[in-house]
Amino acid sequence: MKNPVRVAVTGAAGQIGYSLLFRIASGEMLGKDQPVILQMLELPMEKAQAALRGVMMELEDCAFPLLAGMVGTDDPMVAFKDADVALLVGAMPRGPGMERKDLLLKNAEIFTVQGKALNAVASRNVKVLVVGNPANTNAYIAMKSAPDLDPRNFTAMLRLDHNRALSQLAIRAGVAVADIEKLVVWGNHSPTMYPDYRFATANGASLKDKIGDEAWNRETFIPKVGKRGAAIIEARGLSSAASAANAAIDHIRDWSLGTNGKWTTMGIPSDGSYGIPKDVMYGFPVTCKDGKYEIVQGLEVDEYSRSMMDKTLAELEEERAGVAHLL
Ligand code: NAI
Question: Which residues bind NAD(+) (predicted)?
């Protein structure tokens, strides 16, 4: 049997946590031969800690053969101790009347503390995925608060947007999701993101040619993917949880176990590729191998794409400027 991998999950008693933990413990994220130890963080309030205890009782009741241990805590230094994977899901939600700026600042406090704790106690190879919104900027803050860790250890979740785009394309083109390759969602996990299927293929044939409808791309597809989160809230009365947990599992599985040469989308600190300034946490097309990601290079950026990529970049730069004084 392999040595257990330590997986830290914050916001463990929340909606996404409830969809995520059981799948991690059953082996869906790291493989059916990989034992895991779950290290779960929740707020210190009694209500949150009681809910966490309940989740841990249910995890126990599943008797997962791969669950080699569990820790429940309100201390990031305990949750992140020797963590190999850290899923930062817990975040401050936007309350009634709360300005976007206040939301950014509240979350900046959380992700500064958590970045510092990761810096102090996590494995030097920890793979960090930030899910809690605003995910890209929270990931940027955590990265900047962890100067002793490689910036490449920090990522933000664009995978839900990628998966949403895949399904919309499959429906429109009448092809199977599994046959689509070479899709990317550029930029911020927000309605400014740019889902881009110019390079995508289904069974090797160009999807752009097959769909052949640029008006649908610009007026239906891009806004639909961008506003899908809001549509789910409107329909369900709650934000996406099972699909968000599923995307987090896809993101870490691909990063850890590889994509076999196929593209996926990850929010990662820019290395300057495609004119995106260094360190901006931006959705890029990547391939993963041996636990590392590489940006897909050499893609043409046409005029429309440049304007879309710059628009989502401008939003990220604005968010970054809003928290700069804290870093
Ligand atoms: P939720 O409110 O059900 O759960 C969040 C949990 O985090 C709560 O139990 C809360 O007590 C806990 N928490 C808050 N601050 C914490 C902290 N500092 N340390 C530890 N735990 C903390 O929310 P839900 O639905 O699970 O969503 C979590 C986050 O994920 C939200 O910020 C949401 O906007 C975001 N999200 C991101 C998506 C993406 O694609 N990047 C998709 C869907 C949601």
Answer: 11-17, 107, 114, 131-133
5-156 CATH, one of 3.40.50.300, 3.60.20.10, 3.40.50.10190, 3.40.50.720: 3.40.50.720
Q: What is the C-alpha separation between 321 and 22, in angstroms, rounded?
A: 38
Neighbouring C-alpha atoms within 13 Å toward the C-beta of 8: 30
Cα-to-centroid distance, 241 and ligand 1 (Å): 9
Nearest C-alpha to atom 25 of ligand 1 is from which residue? Answer: 15
The reply to whether 14 sits in an annotated binding site is yes
- Dist CA 113 CA 136 (whole Å): 16
Q: Where are the chain's structural domains?
A: 5-156, 158-323
Ligand 1 pocket, 54 CB below 6 A?
A: no
Q: Per residue in 155-211, pLDDT tens?
A: 999 999 999 999 999 999 999 999 999 999 999 999 999 999 999 999 999 999 999
180 is in an annotated binding site: no
Residue 189 annotated among the catalytic residues of the structure: yes
d(CA 15, CA 245): 9
Is the CB–ligand 1 distance for residue 48 below 6 Å?
yes
**Signed CA dihedral, 12, 13, 19, 25: sign only:** positive
Instruction: Check if 132 has its Cβ closer than 6 Å to any atom of ligand 1.
Output: yes
Three-state DSSP class for residue 10: strand
> Would the pLDDT of 1 be above 90?
no
What the block records as the tokens of 316 is: 């990220």
Q: Which CATH number fits domain 158-323: 3.20.20.70, 3.40.50.300, 3.40.50.2000, 3.90.110.10?
A: 3.90.110.10
List the beta bridge partners of residue 284: 266
- Residue 72 annotated in ligand binding: no
* Residue 109, token pair as written in the block: 């406090």
ipTM value: 0.99
For residues 12-30, average pLDDT = 98
